[in-house]
Amino acid sequence: MENKFLHTALVLEGGGMRGVFTSGVLDWMIDHGITFPYLVGVSAGSSNALSFASHQRGRAKYTFADLQAERHYLGARNILRHRSIMDMDLLYRELPETLWPYDYEAYRANSMRVETVATDCLTGQAVYLEEKDDPERIIDIVRASSSLPFACPIARVDGRPMLDGGIADSIPLARALEQGYEHAVVVLTRHRGYRKEERPPYIPPFIYHRYPRLREALRTRGARYNAQLEWIEHLEDEGRITVIRPDHPVEVARIERNINKMNALYRHGFEVAERVLGI
Questions:
Q1: What does the H/E/C string look like for 111-151?
Q2: Spatial distance between the Cα atoms of 168 and 124, rounded to a whole number of angstroms
Q3: What pLDDT does 278 receive?
């Protein structure tokens, strides 16, 4: 079958446990043999990207929904035990090594370029990281991209302090288009018309006091995210990009334990992909 996405980039937003919607979209793509030459993912989107790039159908859904229901790896009770809202050892050591081993060979063999967005704490800017050969660095990159500000320890990649890529570039469509692709498929985890509260958050002076540019990026995040959404809706209306998003406000919270809600959102992602991309 001819690959009609040969000149198309794939862009994956984050969104915490709402990422299970993206898992449904990507599993539908795997079922239909859809591939892209380039993918860029951020935060939860980077975790989804890994399983998609290794063609491990169901692995991302297991990570977001089933594993959370079984082990509650994301929640406030982890802060006392792990000094993080997420059990990082479970997600970035036990999961890829033993629970559902990651297929690094399949990932390496995939010709698709995969970029992951993280935020450099020193500059407050987005960095776009690639790795296909070093398993440890692959995991370090995804861990950094998914390390939520205020709730997770600062991660390090190549010795640089980094946090959640969504701080600097929540929806890396501009990065994808800069690579020269004619079109992009953008997978969002919020319904059309959603906008974030733009009031800058109060950040106590002692929080990230060594990283003033990170603090500024956190203060302006809401306004920049909303500007990205406005631009995306404009390009979508002009037919210049394809957007796959939930049809309605999502009931799954960023930190969610209700397996039924997550399974329903996964199925919704599958259904929306079928409707938007149906071949």
A1: CCEEEEEEEECCCCCEEEECCCCCHHHHHHHHHHHCCCCCC
A2: 7
A3: 85
pLDDT at position 253 is 81
Q: 206 Cβ partners below 8 Å, 6+ apart?
A: none
Task: For residue 47, give the nearest of 124, 102, 5 by alpha carbon.
Answer: 102
Cα–Cα separations (whole angstroms), residue 27 to 37, 87, 100, 248, 269 = 17, 25, 16, 21, 9
Sequence-separated (6 or more) residues with CB below 8 Å from residue 277: 28, 29, 32, 34, 185, 242, 244
CB of 8 closer than 8 Å to CB of 36: yes
**Beta carbons of 157 and 120 less than 8 angstroms apart:** no
Tokens (6 digits) for 202 = 């109060």
* C-alpha pair distances (Å), 190 with each of 23, 38, 53, 116, 262: 14, 23, 23, 20, 14
**How many residues belong to the chain?**
279
Query: What dihedral do alpha carbons 269, 274, 277, 279 form, nearest 10°?
Result: 160
Token readout for 279 is 């071949």
Q: Could you tell me which of 91, 59, 93 has the C-alpha nearest to residue 75? A: 91
pLDDT digits (tens, 9 = 90+) for 139-172: 999 999 999 999 999 999 999 999 999 999 999 9
Amino acid at 94: E
C-alpha–C-alpha distance, residues 4 and 35, integer Å: 9
User: Which residues of the chain, if any, have pLDDT below 50?
Assistant: 1
pLDDT of residue 79: 80
| Burial (0-12, 13-18, 19+ Cβ within 10 Å), 77 | exposed
Tell me, yes or no, if the pTM score tops 0.70.
yes
